[in-house]
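TA notes. Do not distribute before section.
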Amino acid sequence: MRPGGSLYDRIVRATGPTSAQGAPEGAETRSVLELSPAASAWHAFLLRKAAQRVTAMTEAVLSQHGLTMRHFGVLTAIEDEPGQNQRGVGERLRIDRTTVVTLTDDLENAGLLERRRGLDRRMFALYLTPFGVERLAELKRLTAAVHDEFLANLSDAERVTLRDLLIKVVAEPEDG
């Protein structure tokens, strides 16, 4: 055995027990240690497990409306910057061109967005329809509820810190 104990022991000492915000007195949260202690030492493993969990939770809610997280992402990107073209949406969401076309087709067929000829007649500008604006507001409320459930073990400050750190992690590294 290494000095300091097993990897499991080091993780237990490092993480310690936690409790859920707003949980009844004495309630315990699911611990990272329910996963393989050896695998839980790796950021990539934990990030993947977190992504799998929040994706499944969000997809379950959005699928009731015939949508996916990618559809939701396109809608929010267009809401944020109305009139952008499909290529711009794809670049911002890091989704390939073919997938963006399919998602845009789906959303247009559902009456949630419309394509309008842009300044460059070869490209279409994307806009939410009035129904799309209304539906997106509902989807945001539902997705916020999923995030609240997913992040229930974190304080408000920890949620902000997690978001800030994830933005740094997914950003392209700067040269130099």
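Switch to the second chain here.
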Amino acid sequence: MGFRSSSTPPAGGGIPGSPAGGSGPRAPFTPRPRPFPSRGGDRFNREDKDGVRLNERIRVPEVRLIDEKGEQVGIVPTVQALAMARDRGLDLMEVAAGAKPPVCKILDYGKFKYEEKKKEHVARKNQVVVKVKEIQLRPNTDEHDLDYKVKNAISFCEEGDKVKFIIQFRGREVAHTAPGYAMCKDILERMKDVAVVETPTKMEGKKMMMIVAPNPQAKKK
């Protein structure tokens, strides 16, 4: 007596693994091609760490284009602008994201970054950094010590720095500030050829403060 198999063919008579009711195997997935396929180390597909939109990161439909010579090309499709940049071995950089459409420029981004860093270096080199030196005093600072500290203050001003004098009062001394004001007046008299008052003498809690700055006229001598 024979035995009949209990297995049944897939619904719709299709191949096992195909969708129910399908007439054949499922088509393989094919990813959409990028406008400009990556070429390994191709700089055209890189991402800039400074947050600047470059090349394929510019995803608007159209842009107002400026070519590498600085001439206005006009409004063109972004794909066309990318193709123009790539054909010339250059980059497409977004320079005005808020404009409608955004303004983009064809340039050598590596050279652009180098020039920007060079400008920043020159600017830092030419920048004058003014420091504020502090000199601590007491109302009863002796004449020898005061003379030494005033000489240091004169040197600081001659080097282009400001000087902040701080006279520290303790306990009941704060009720008798006249000696402090007299000391500041004496200091200004000694420094009159190299310094001018920037912040007049004033009390802040138990401290008397005065700031002097280099005298611009002294540099011309």
